[in-house]
Amino acid sequence: MYKIIHKKPLNLTVTMMDIEAPLVARKAQPGQFIILRVDAEGERIPLTVAGYDRESGTVRIIFQIVGATTACLNQKEEGDYIEDFAGPLGTPTKLDGLKKVCIVGGGVGCAIALPIAQALHAQGCDVTSIIGFRSKDLLILEDEFKAASGRLYVMTDDGSYGREGNVCVPLNELFAAGETFDEVITIGPLIMMKFVVAATRPTGIPCTVSMNPIMIDGTGMCGGCRLTLHDADGKTVTKFACVDGPDFDGYAVDFDEAMSRGAMYRDFERHAYEKTCNLFHKEVK
Amino acid sequence: MPNMNPKKNPMPTQAPEVRAHNFSEVALGYDEAAALDEALRCLNCKNMPCVSACPVNIRIPEFIAKIKEGDFEGAYQIIHTTSSLPAVCGRVCPQETQCESKCVRGIKGEPVGIGRLERFVADWHNAHTDTVPAVPESNGHKVAVVGSGPSGLTCAGDLAKAGYKVTVFEALHTAGGVLVYGIPEFRLPKSIVAKEVDNLRAMGVDVETNIIIGKTLTVDELFEMGYEAVFIGSGAGLPNFMGIPGESLKGVYSANEFLTRSNLMKAYKEDPVTPIMKGGNVAVVGGGNVAMDAARTALRLGAEHVYIVYRRSMAELPARKEEVEHAEEEGIEFLVLNNPVEILGYHNPDDRRDPKNGFVTGMKCIRMELGEPDARGRRRPIPVPDSEFVLDVDTVIMSIGTSPNPLIKSTTKGLDVNSHGGIIVEETTGATTKEGVYAGGDAVTGAATVISAMGAGKTAAKAIDEYLKNK
Hints:
- By secondary structure, chain A is of the alpha/beta class.
- Chain A has nine helices and 17 strands.
- Chain A is 30% helix and 31% strand.
- In chain A, α4 links the parallel β10 and β11 (151-156).
- The radius of gyration of chain B is 23 Å and the shape is globular.
- The chains are: A alpha/beta, B alpha/beta.
């Protein structure tokens, strides 16, 4: 059992939690993920590490309430326990030697992008951050990004905060102005990452994406998280996000396939989410 | 007087048409009368060929003699001296190629039903005895076991009996390894595995779940923590795929994923929290025990047709004969001498958002014929030109083996692996190339059987004991 030390809603649909898991906290690095189960009957879900405190032995997770499991998790309060919390899994984001990087985060993906921005900032890297949200209500971590970035662009789809438009708008402007980076690192919805990759491709700047496919064990056993990569020579390879990733060369990832696979259980998930919400609703009544 | 009936006492089973729709155990086990009758078929041979054919050398004629006396607990105690998991082995061991293959009764009839008797004894013990095993006297030495599958549990059990303080580290949330995530409930009820793990705990073994060795902790850190030896029984790893077009379509699973969803995550239950594709037509590619498990699970989940697609013929199926027979009785259709060449998916050219897009609609196969024997003596399957056809399926389960997991190898200096990624060990001891580190089971051999993994765990436990005594 793993104790929830701290809980804070970041907006209506996104919650931050610090979980007591000293062994995970000791090893976790930006870009890695954990697998959790809320209770003994629950499903296993992967969440990318949003931070860690090696001294207090806590790992930070930031999650969007999108399904039955995240809804159950969000019902837990400080001092409550969750059943399982295993990690850190996957390979850390490669940050060595980077001097100038553009971080592009979208929605709750910004939670995962933040520790990368912070680590780069701490190693003296010039960080440009572009973060995008659907609207002002969904904005998270603006101050934290400000502190870790030389330049910060905040975008909203509806223009209710920052600039109106998607994250590719400032990215394209930077490229058009001749700006160059050692690397572009993007984390967010698949469709957003696909467009960031497309925007970056003409520049030839390396573009790393963080994939979050459906997983079960997360340790390299089930193969459910497989992705297709097309390398520069036109060769096609299958990779497993849990052990080979979750970071991949954005130019190689087959995003259309990943989006299709991600929607495999959409009907099931919607049904399970509605059922869970109804259950909580009844309890409240 | 021995019972000279040339046939084994039949194993009572659920009727095929009933069991095809439930997840309860297929084989129901002998009652006392059947067990006694079967035990009387044993001739108690002096040279005991069965014992040497058992990877853990269970003293078979001795335990059967106890059954003849009606001393079932005595029989259990004899098995328990060499096997930590009798209720498991009695169910999943391939006895026909091991102990029973050497039984003298098998020369002129069927061998003694050793596996069925082992299961009877273990089940009798579990039903009638609640004495918890005593905690052996401690020798003060700590050993770490990586993985709680059959090799790890066996190694831990033997070391605990010898007085070692053993900690088992398991990556998943439940102990048992493949016994829990892989082998279905209808072949091996999970309560039996849980009971075996509880017995180990009662003997003082600590089982730590949610710890991934190679990630959460490394092998070197285990030594820093005071463990004096480490046994790696981390199992097989990443599932293999064929590399044909369409393997990433929705509805294509590895057998590991399909079985893990159903077994470990309980997707077979009504209203599960973890989803799985149910119903429709299902093709399972491969012919091993895992393929049989996947096919029979798919059937129980409500599939209309379940096909085993295998490139050789029935005679070459690597699965246990009993599993193949059970599958056939239940209505699994064997499409042997066929090989998939492409998996086909739905694509609506007019509507990118059609929810059916990207789901499997069929599998294109080519017929095969058997040619000359290959290096291992198995006749090589050769495609028959222009014989392609499309099998109408909604789900495809790839059950064509696994490749070793890279997590431990990549974080353990001095641990050598072979070209397939299997950990290199000295066969007689399980010693790896790194001092104090031993390994066994699928992590060494690639996908094999529960009992061979147990044998490896046993071998390593003995070697670890000798190593630490001489250190």
